[in-house]
C-alpha cells in the first residue's frame, strides 16, 4: 500500500520479480542437470533433495542472502567428503552422513538459531577491528 501510495507500479514489480525468479531457477536447473548428467524424476522429487535444500537454508541462515551460500558450501563439501571417505564396500557406513547432518542441524538450531551467517559476519568484523 505504501509503495502504491508514492506512485510505484507494484503489479509490474511483482511480475518482474516472478520472471527473474523463474529465470534464475531455470539457469540453476540447467546447470545442475549438466553437472549430474541425468535427471531422474524419482530423485528430483525425493524427500532427500528437499531436506538437503531446507538444511542448506537453515544452517546457513535465512536472514541474509549470504546464508544459503555459506550453507551450500558447507553442506555440499561435507557431503562429498563424507560420501568419499565413509561409503564404499570397505567402510560399510553408507548413511552416516545423514546422521552427521542431523547432529549439525540440532546444534545449529540450539546454539545458533539465526544460522551460521551472522556468526561469520561477526567474526569478519572482529577480525577487521583487530587488524
Write up this protein:
The chain has 131 residues and is mostly helical. It contains 7 helices and no strands. The protein has helices at residues 2-5, 10-36, 41-44, 47-60, 66-86, 96-111, 116-130. Helix 4 (47-60) crosses helix 5 (66-86). It is extended, with a radius of gyration of 19 Å. The termini are far apart. The model has no long low-confidence stretch (mean pLDDT 84).
Structure, briefly:
The chain is an all-alpha fold and 131 residues long. It has helices at residues 2-5, 10-36, 41-44, 47-60, 66-86, 96-111, 116-130. The longest helix has 27 residues, at 10-36.
Write the layout of secondary structure elements.
Layout lengths: L1 H4 L4 H27 L4 H4 L2 H14 L5 H21 L9 H16 L4 H15 L1
Helix pairs in contact: 4-5
Distance between the termini: 46 Å
Q: Label the overall shape.
A: extended
What sequence of helices (H) and strands (E) makes up the elements?
HHHHHHH
- Estimate percent helicity: over 70%
Strand content: under 5%
* Category by helix and strand content: mainly alpha
Give the radius of gyration. 19 Å
Biggest sheet details = none
Mean pLDDT rating: 84
What low-confidence regions span 5 or more consecutive residues with pLDDT below 50? none
Write down how many β-strands occur, each being a DSSP E stretch of 2 or more residues.
0
> How many helices?
7
Features:
mainly alpha
Amino acid at each position: 500500500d505504501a509503495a502504491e501510495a508514492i506512485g510505484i507500479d507494484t503489479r509490474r514489480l511483482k511480475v518482474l520479480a516472478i520472471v527473474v525468479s523463474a529465470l534464475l531457477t531455470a539457469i540453476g536447473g540447467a546447470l545442475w542437470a549438466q553437472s549430474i548428467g541425468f535427471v531422474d524424476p524419482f530423485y528430483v522429487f525425493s524427500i532427500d533433495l528437499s531436506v538437503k535444500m531446507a538444511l542448506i537454508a537453515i544452517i546457513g541462515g535465512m536472514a541474509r542472502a549470504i546464508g544459503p551460500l555459506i550453507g551450500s558450501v558447507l553442506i555440499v563439501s561435507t557431503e562429498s567428503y563424507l560420501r568419499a571417505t565413509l561409503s564404499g564396500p570397505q567402510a560399510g557406513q553408507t548413511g552416516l552422513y545423514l546422521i552427521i547432518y542431523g547432529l549439525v542441524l540440532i546444534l545449529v538450531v540450539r546454539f545458533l538459531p539465526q544460522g551460521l551467517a551472522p556468526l561469520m559476519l561477526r567474526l569478519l568484523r572482529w577480525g577487521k577491528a583487530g587488524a
